[in-house]
Amino acid sequence: MAHVTENALRMTLWNCNGALWTHPGRLEEILKVSDILFLVETHQSPNRGLPRVEGFRWESAFRQTSRRHTTRGSGGVAILFRRELHNRIEIMKIDPEARFMWVKVSTSKDQAVFFAICYFPPKGSRYNMGGLARLVDEGMPHGPSPYEPLSDDIIRYSSQGEVFLVGDFNARTQSRQCTVFQMNRNLEMVNVDPLDIGTTRRSKDQGADATGFGHHLLELGSRHRMVIYNGLAKWPGSEELTCFPHGGGESTVDYLIGRPEATHMINSFRVAPCPIGADHSFLYFELKCDISKVTKSSQPCHHTTIHFTHELSDIYSQHVQAHLSSLDPSLPLESLSTKLTHILHSAAASSFPYTKHSNQGRSGSMPQNKWYDEDCRDLHRQLTVSQLNGSITSIQARKEMRKMTRRKRRAWEASQYWELYHMLMS
């Protein structure tokens, strides 16, 4: 039985820091209370996509490189939204460096808002403007602003609707606020008192702005008549800390930013307590809209398809090792094989609760099997070129590719079988 909910889109911002793979159940937990999820630091790469989530759809931006000796990427931003909203959401622009992605969300038939989903690396990162942000000269005491690429886009999309910035800016602003200007009767630009427009904010983060990124973020907001929503009196609970690094410390670096005149569009806004095992809190907020959403009266359990990666191998191997001790090596090989299969399946089920396991890749994506190595990729590129040149047909290309992948898969499966067999015998 379905019913129409109130006219508001439930949105969540989360710097997952790769937790899509190490804590898959946490994503399902957020989706129970979210229509749209903004994610940053997804660690997506060309060799590793994002987990499939039933009833939801992904759009993402990621760097075209992977870290050495791993399929994991660095940084990355994404939006995950309910499939019934697909005709209301449009990707407007993706930054080549995957620092931000502009998304248009239609709130009615003739109105829309624009979100910039942002992840700007810390000052010491090699991905931060190619290292330029580390240069400081007399004219720039805080160094160049990493947020400058957003400026032209804010101007462009502000002419089409309200603009909001969401994400991890790696900027500490304490309780400071952007300066709002307006023109007086003498046609002079003067500062507006924050008390007059309700933009005074209070943050629990009182740490120093050591990198100068906080200064740059406040300057960006002041230039475009935008303010930080975190800590406004209108939303109790939004002043909480958002970042808790595993190495120690705490700060606020994840923000929701918009025009002071647009605060009425946000029904509620709060920072949730940091989940166990994560290093960033969730930022929940509701956006007013005229879209009627039909949902089931009882929330379904959203299952996530997790492709096994080496990041999960520790969890998986612990369960396997715990059950291997019960095997009797004197059993016939066929019985050993059957019991080993049962152990592997039970370990998978206990390692990844609330998930479905699938070997199917994402549509249009390159295979991510471990046996699909550089030889396969080279052959695929050669066949593609040959097919474009007309030297072979598509059928011939598929046959050659199938031969290579079949040979690689069989060799890999045989090596895995013997590794397990020798481990059991030892």
Task: Explain how this protein is built.
With 426 residues, the protein is an alpha+beta fold. It is built from 9 helices and 19 strands. A 6-stranded mixed sheet has the order 5-6-3-2-16-15, with no helix packed on it. A 6-stranded mixed sheet has the order 7-8-9-10-14-13, covered by helices on one side. A hairpin with a 5-residue loop joins strand 11 (181-183) and strand 12. Residues 1-5, 130-138, 294-302 and 354-366 have low confidence and may be disordered.
Can you lay out the helices and strands and say which pair or pack?
Elements: E1 2-4, E2 8-15, H1 19-22, H2 24-31, E3 36-40, E4 52-53, E5 56-61, E6 77-82, E7 89-94, E8 100-106, E9 112-119, H3 148-158, E10 162-168, E11 181-183, E12 189-191, H4 194-197, H5 213-223, E13 227-228, E14 254-258, E15 266-271, E16 282-288, E17 294-296, E18 304-305, H6 313-324, H7 333-351, E19 355-356, H8 374-389, H9 394-425
Parallel strand pairs: 2-3, 9-10, 18-19
Antiparallel strand pairs: 1-17, 2-16, 3-6, 4-18, 5-6, 7-8, 8-9, 10-14, 11-12, 13-14, 15-16
Helix pairs in contact: 6-7, 8-9
Strand content: 15-25%
Q: What separation lies between the terminal Cα atoms?
A: 57 Å
Secondary-structure-derived class = alpha+beta
What general outline do the C-alpha atoms trace?
elongated
Output the helix-strand order: EEHHEEEEEEEHEEEHHEEEEEEHHEHH
SS field, number of helical segments: 9
Sheet with the most strands, sense and barrel status = 6 strands, mixed
**Percent range of helical residues:** 25-40%
- By DSSP, the count of extended strands is 19
